[in-house]
Amino acid sequence: TRELEQKNKLLENLANIDGLTEVNNHRFFQNFLDQEINRSIRNERTISILLADIDNFKKFNDTYGHQTGDFILKEFCRITREQIREYDLLARYGGEEFIFVLPETEPADAYTVAEKIRRVVDEYAFDDGDNVYHVTISIGVASARPTGRDFKKNEFIGLADEALYQAKKNGRNQVAMYDPKKKKRWFNF
After folding, report:
1. Residues 155-175: pLDDT tens digits?
2. DSSP string, the chain
């Protein structure tokens, strides 16, 4: 029946959407990334991920309160979603961390998208009607061309996390790309 279909759709949304930010949640991201990795293997295409973290967000919350922090998270998702293609994914990875999945995106293009997102956030006036706030983000980028079942999704995410760590270590408010020349492990291109 139609009512049952509507209820099932609502349950599916509740299971896949982050209640605060209204973007996809971590669970949905994991399933989506599995599908896109398999598609990349089949089509011999590169896939890229961006792991973004709002800089000093704990301090921001401590200073301005969690309601203001929640406003920042929601607005961050709204403005960054506008910077990606319809078939890309933005998901809440956890806390103030967000992950973008960019199917069929080469490293240089992924870096360009990440820098565009970083710049948009840096220049944006987060206006809640009472005050205007300014936040910055750091982004780690990793790209891979998976070649088979030996591709490890968690290692791939770990590469973006390493790049994010590098961006923060280098002063925040920047994009860092995982550099395979600096590490022994990498995925085929």
Report:
1. 999 999 999 999 999 999 999
2. -HHHHHHHHHHHHHHHB-TTT-SB-HHHHHHHHHHHHHHHHHHT--EEEEEEEETTHHHHHHHH-HHHHHHHHHHHHHHHHTTS-TTSEEEEEETTEEEEEETT--HHHHHHHHHHHHHHHHH--EE-SS-EE---EEEEEEEE---STT--HHHHHHHHHHHHHHHHHTTSSSEEE--GGGSS-----
